[in-house]
Fold these 4 entries.
Entry 1:
Amino acid sequence: GPAHLFRLAGKCFSFVESTYKYEFCPFHNVTQHEQTFRWNAYSGILGIWHEWEIDNNTFVGMWMREGDSCETKSRQTKVHLVCGRSNKLAYVSEPSTCVYSLTFETPLVCHPHSLLVYPTLTEALQKKWDEAEQLLYDQLITDQGYKKILKEIFEEAGLLKATEEKEVEKQNKKISLKFETVEKCNK
């Protein structure tokens, strides 16, 4: 992601709403602590740093996933990055059960180019993106094909997690490369 945002790593930001205290630690996790004296007050993890959300070739948010279990799934949180005068957790909501939404204000994202994806990529990945742009311009690929290439670029850059299918595919390829023949396998 954007190198200038790594200044936030190792820091945590709190927000208290009614009886809950939320704590956001960029590139680490999001936690929630119930501020009551009940014997079973909830205190837990709403998500662990997972990947970026990218829209229109811009970083729009951070996904914190694999939090504490909640019914049949894990808690997860999307952190929206917005321009603000200081670094602070400004708003927390739960739009759907066990899925949280946080708004984090920071001056680090105020510049119009501060969240562009392209400059954060290696030269080789920028070249791949340029080639995809040319293919789209020449109408040799569809919008869908272009988006697929971009997704692959973002995964290769480590900005998005590869889907489980791809991980299984990679494992299968590794396994199948171990033996070229049945004889070698038997040995």
Entry 2:
Amino acid sequence: FSSSESASDLRALFDFIRTSLTPAGSDSWKGPVLLVDDLSVLLSLGARPVAVLDFIHYCRVVVCSQLKGNIVVLVHSNEDSEDEENELVVNSLCHHSDLILWVEGLVTGFCKDVHGQIKIIKRVSLELTAEQDLVQIYQYKIQDKNVTFFARGLSAAVL
């Protein structure tokens, strides 16, 4: 981590995560998962994008490489956003992720039977190769206690 104040705060957060997830004695974590609810919050608290990306890199080394687990990160993005720091973090995370779930509203606007769509992007390779990512797109409707997913154009309202 760099030597700025926000980076040292993230270092303390990383140390807490590493200590919390590292098995002690006879404890054995089988494939731990680190969930980061909203990484964008760290930027709004004054952390620099490089410090945030360093933080995620160090978490990835401990959780994914050493403990053989996974990291799930939520970030907010908006193509119309002028928040360049947030977009830098989003683009970098997308570049280094094996699986991307991109949730967005409908480009056609509001619809009472379809609330949005989710794009599932499975990275075939994180290396620069000619292999194409696998992309699946589903639409969804949020209900009281669950979410219904369906292929584009196949909602109950259309059929």
Entry 3:
Amino acid sequence: KSANPQWREQFDFHYFSDRKDMLDIEVWRKDNKKHDELLGTCHVDITALPTKQTNCLELPLEKHPGSLLMLIAVAPCTGVSISDLCVCPLGDPTERQQIAQRYCIKNSFRDIKDIGFLQVKVLKAVDLMAADFSGKSDPFCVLELGNDMLQTHTVYKNLNPEWNKVFTFPIKDIHDVLEVTVFDEDGDKPPDFLGKVAIPLLSV
């Protein structure tokens, strides 16, 4: 019920060199009776923004009235990584010892925001649902922790895909829940849902 909404939400996107350089933003009106209505879109060229500073942008919505006020900061990506299983970041005993020292009790208050990190090895899925007419699926896996999201590559025509990837997330809230969702890639259409599991960090 507002034409001037204030959300005050922060989202972290992990921007890697092989990703596209445009940030696409859509504004929708939620309607419980009918389909949701698109109120406008805007785009931000990430490569044109100065780095290591907060940029205040007022973005007019394309072909629609109104604008968005956003704060966007582009900074070096730290604490998040994707690697193959054979080069697992925590495989080195020396590195494990350094990490144990970094998070020992006496260093607890050295950096309040540095709670720790979570490393997830996504090995494989077994007996997935067939989403295609061929009796197969094109599955990929999405991992979400707080507002952080990473995903595997797609394994085509396979109900027992093997990804063998290692994902590392910085932990910002120990009460967060790791959500792992498997989707079926469907060309230009939205991906089909194949299953999901939620793991509270406190249970690890």
Entry 4:
Amino acid sequence: DEECVDKAKKALENSWQVLNSGDWKLEKQTPEGDTVHSRVLPNIGKIFKLAMLDDYTDITYQVTREVAGGFISSRDFINLRHYAVKDGQHIAAGTGMEHPDFPANIKYIRGENGPNCWVMSPIPKDDKQCTFQWLLNTNLHGWLPQYAVDSALITALTDYIGYIRAYASKLRQEGEL
């Protein structure tokens, strides 16, 4: 597990350096203002990056793995996200969208996100904690009973906050928080 974590941290650092250095060649610009750039790295080859619409807005393409032993198959999502600080609260909000660079793929059922957001609010007089709220609105589409979808989403929410707490605890122990 430690080896995987170290490898993931190194990947983050390497990716950050690559993203913010070097000469990128413009490959495509969409009418919506999205840009795709490329660059060739020694011993790696050609890499691509999708630039954000601005410093606080981006479009993501995500694919989920199948869950419940394949009962819920893989889904793909296209999301438009925006980040801001509002009334001292950090907010990441988004919604699903269509995008010409990400047509439907027969391998996946196209899911759709409605209004979604994460809000991290400071707790007065406690700089080591915050409140966390997650507004989740997801339509998985396909032939799934709603009770199974609801159960899976509730599990995803509670698992995720558990992962956040564990990660924050680890950061506190390492003196990074």
